[in-house]
Amino acid sequence: MQSRPILVGLASPRTGGMLALAGVIALLPLFLSNKYFYDIVVLVGLNAIVCVGLNLLIGYAGQISLGHAGFFGAGAYGSAILASRFGWPPIAAMLATTLAVALLAYLVGRPILRLKGHYLAMATLGMGIIVFMVITTEDAYTGGPDGIAVVPFSIGGYVLQGERVWYWVVGALLLLAVWLAQNLIDSPAGRALRALHSSEVGAEVVGINAAKHKVMVFVISAVFASVAGSLAAHYSGFITPGKATFLHSIELVTMVVFGGMASTFGAVVGAAVLTTLPQLLAVFEDYEMMVFGAVMMGTMIFLPRGVVPSIARLFQARSKQQIGDKESGA
Amino acid sequence: MSAQFVQYLLTGLTVGAIYALVALGFSIIFNASHVINFAQGEFVMIGGMATVSLSAAGLPYLLAIPLAIVAAALVGLALEKFAVEPARGASVVTLIIITIGASIFLRGLAMVIWDKRFHALKPFTGDTPIPIGGATILPQSLWVLGVTLAIVLALTWFFGRTLLGKAMLATSHNRLAAQLVGINVRMVLFVSFGLSAALGAVAGILIAPITTTSYDVGVMLGLKGFAAAILGGLGSGVGAVVGGLVLGIAETMSAGYLSSAYKDAIAFVIILVVLFFLPSGLFGKRGGERV
Q: Which B residues in the span 257-286 are in contact with A, Cβ-Cβ below 8 Å?
């Protein structure tokens, strides 16, 4: 009888989801036959880390951001400049960059998170574009539109190189990111976020400091994006401003919404689908852009809640029906 | 006033008038539907590009321009019918992604129909600069300013004097109440997309002889128009025009006196600073949240 609560615990969506994700990460290499596939999966993992953070902001707190590629780009370029131009150890460069991005997000977040809806969309969009323009213009440090080469990541003499090594590093970090996000969601702070999502005034009335919580989650999501950006720069060995564009911000938001808002695993699924999609669409050549736009429109029109919640609802409806069948049968 | 200042002011007004037209398009659709149409910039592109290829096919401007505007308006109507209407009641983020998806789709389509090159359009009436107060102005700039003024006057008349215009205004104030007094709200939504698309196309045609046009010209113009609409206060017609002109002038001035490298960033710096102090723009509705 002792084992029963553990089993029940394992079957809960949260632990079950973590185990399923860990299982997928552990077994996936069996199906990855060459470097190219590893490369795509590493990119999926890095995007998924950004999306898990962004989902806390958009899905749970209900605050939109059209500028998170700016944080991703700031993280990537911060690491690249400190490590490659100034010769900092990569881990120190990443930590310093992460702290700087957290501070930036805090300073920007405090005034702009007072804004609502479209005004917040505009402000975050503007912030992202300003970061992008600084990156393309300050070419003495950033290499401008041509980009900048980045030294490989190394910890105490051990150099992280090769797609396979990166696969396990990114996989472990993704699990950590999901675990952190899940813990935050189930904490009092997470409940506060959901409360202010449904009504900010209502949340304030029951004693939640809405401004504080919104800024907190904004900073957390910026940190996730910045860390993923730093890692992406070291992994690919080269970074261009393309990763900091408005379009990349939109892609990140689309991943979150496509997977399903307020679903951490949805964010991972969204990142996986939308990162691999352009690779598949390459067969359309000149029509690639049209097809990508059409897919974006189509999924949002037909699955406005996103893939994972829609499937989950389908299963719930079916299991309810089965229970109903049993009851009527008895 | 130095001649240089006058020059920057004239250039700024020209650019600002274009931003104002794009911003008006954003505001009209927002009023009818509370949707921010991120594909607004693509109408600007369609207007310019269609005029380029129609006049290259031998049509005179008097025929090519109206046809290009109609083409853009039809695309706007199609966008409403097939992308926005089916997603009614979806969340703000979802609608933003749908219209951005539409803009990517239209840009891809333009790339397939036309090409990736820049195209110049011949100025409407010559290109001899006219001297004004030590500075000069292109005849095409006069066209931009004149047509923008005419459109603003026509829109004032349309929203103040015609039945359809008043119906659109009523819908923007209270959708449900408008429906209860017998206004066809769906029709209003449909018309607003056609009208906005036509406005965007006009902006694209007016500016094409000055800045040239290409398949991706809509991205920046769309975002700056959105910034202008937000600066003025979403949904306010006066706000859209003032916001557009302010952004245009500020941008040209700072490019001239400060740094031209950050010209495109100025609009977004201004919008952030203004929103810090006026969270609903210059002329936006202020109001509390209801629980």
A: 261-262, 264-265, 267-269, 271-272, 275-276, 279-281
